[in-house]
Amino acid sequence: MLHPPVRMMLLDPGHFHAALLLNYHRDAIHPRLFCYAPVGPDLLDWMQHLTRFNTRSLHPTRWQLDVRASDSFEDRFFRELPGRAAILAGRNHRKLSRMRRCVESAVHVIADKPWAIAPEQLPEIEAMLHEARLREMQVFDAMTERWAAPNQLLRTLLADRTLFGMLQPGTVDLPAIRLASMHALHKYVAGRPQIRPVSFFHPDEHGEPLADVGTHLADLAMWIAFPDQTFHFRSDLTILRAGRDRLPLRLPQWQRLTGFSQYPNELADWIISDVLHWPSRNWVDFTLKGHHIRIDAGWEEHLPNGDWTTAEFRGSRCWIALKNDPPPISSPVVILSPNDPAEFETIRALLVDRLSDWDDRYPNLSLKIQDNRFEIRISESQLVPHEQLFGRVMAQFLQHVQTNKPLPAWEYPNLLTKYAITTQGVARSRESESPPPE
Questions:
Q1: What distance in Å separates the CA atoms of residue 191 and residue 19, rounded to the nearest whole number?
Q2: Tens-digit pLDDT profile for residues 342-397
Q3: Domain 8-144+387-405 CATH class label
């Protein structure tokens, strides 16, 4: 059945992810994009991204930008509503109220993380999701990392009980699951240096790292290790301990990252001896239905080998981890280590069979034995650049919008649990300025 293309609107794009969701042309989206925003650098940045997408030599897009900029852009957006779906990214402290208004106006929403940066916002998410169900509206959290090949392979490995066994409960000092990620403030996006908006550095406006990039880690903990299981944060989640660290950013660094010559007045509380001491890292230990989990998320000014993520899962038969090769390779490798050395050959035979069976899903996986453990490498052709993952999330969103297919029953309860982990973790971390335990 053919569906008419979706007319897409953008409301105050304050993060470059609003552009990456439109990185590729799709027949399911009408080429005319309606953007409502105040005149300023963030709007200009979004327009420049879309212009580059339109004019690149390889797979150019054909977007027609209908920009409706004014001081009263938000009122105008909800008064005119020329489309049936909206993209929201950035402006994290205002995002949730805007999403709620979209749902109440019968507008489908795909929103970049995070939806919440403080625990008191959880009831608002709950009310919005209830409204979305009643109105049969799609509300999508852009969880791009679910589409990354290493994470999909981890999910498949952990679901194989003959290989992994059962996830162990773990302890606070030896968690069953550990997920960590570090991200570079200075990076290139679509071939150009990324300028950070001032709001990015305001903890109460953009959110601290755990509430921002840590959202992916909280999501992956459930999605990888507990596929299709439902969690309810009020009964299944217990926050145990947390902490945070700060990154000193001197004025020359600030100028390079933001393009602004001085620190803004709104960050005065974080400036000590003329240096911005920015909350750059949070970690939290918690349990989900009795399983101990630790997530750790942060930012550095530079990461020579790019952003990285590591993961560990402790099963009754094997320990499975995601690591990164040392430079200059720096590609992800999945490690599997049997708990009982006597089972090494049995596990090896199982792995050989599984990799053969999974060749259609994960083509050209390679298996290597190193230091009494197995290393599984994903072929370069399957390691999709992060920017391309946004297109896969958008394609999924459009499919649900056009077919009116509801999300799985576990999706919204786990979404609330995810934001309970991140926001309550940040709140607890403010009580302890400390790095994570080893």
A1: 14
A2: 999 999 999 999 999 999 999 999 999 988 899 999 988 888 888 899 999 999 99
A3: alpha beta
In angstroms, the CA 81 to CA 85 distance is 9
Residue keyed to tokens 């933001």: 258
Provide the H-helix boundaries in 121-272.
122-135, 149-159, 161-164, 214-225, 233-236, 251-258
Q: Are 7 and 85 in contact (CB under 8 A)?
A: yes
Element (H, E) at 429: helix 411-429
Please list the ranges in the chain whose pLDDT falls under 70.
1, 190, 325-330
CATH code for the part of the protein at 146-384+423-429: 3.30.360
424-434 pLDDT, tens per residue? 999 999 988 77
pLDDT for residue 59: 94
| Residue 405: Cβ-neighbour burial (10 angstroms; 0-12, 13-18, 19+) | exposed
The pair of structure tokens assigned to 39 is 């005149």
> What secondary structure letter does DSSP report for 366?
E
pLDDT, residue 238, reads 99
User: Measured between alpha carbons, how far apart are the two ends of the chain, in Å?
Assistant: 55
Domain ranges of the chain: 8-144+387-405, 146-384+423-429
